[in-house]
Here is the input.
Amino acid sequence: MTSMLDVMTFLLKKYVASLPLPTLSDIFDQLIWYLDDNGKEIEEVRRKWLFSENKKEVEVALYISETFPFDSYDEIHDCYSSICKKWPELCPCCDEVINNWKQQFSIS
Here is the structure.
């Protein structure tokens, strides 16, 4: 049986370069709701990709927006701060997720 990591990696490799990566993230967002595990495997791959050295994997993981990738603010903040240090151009997306977390959970 093929793993979700294999499926997501295959789709990223076959993705049409002229399309923006958030479009692939949108597909993963939709799949979260269609799978019998409520996207558990997608979330596992997403968390793995957020720590990847492959910028495309990180970008796709960042733009998945139906759920938060971690259960605590500290985890999100630490992970996304690390991404911003590696790829400053991804900071606006990281900041948006962090701000959404703060808003969702009423954190100042």
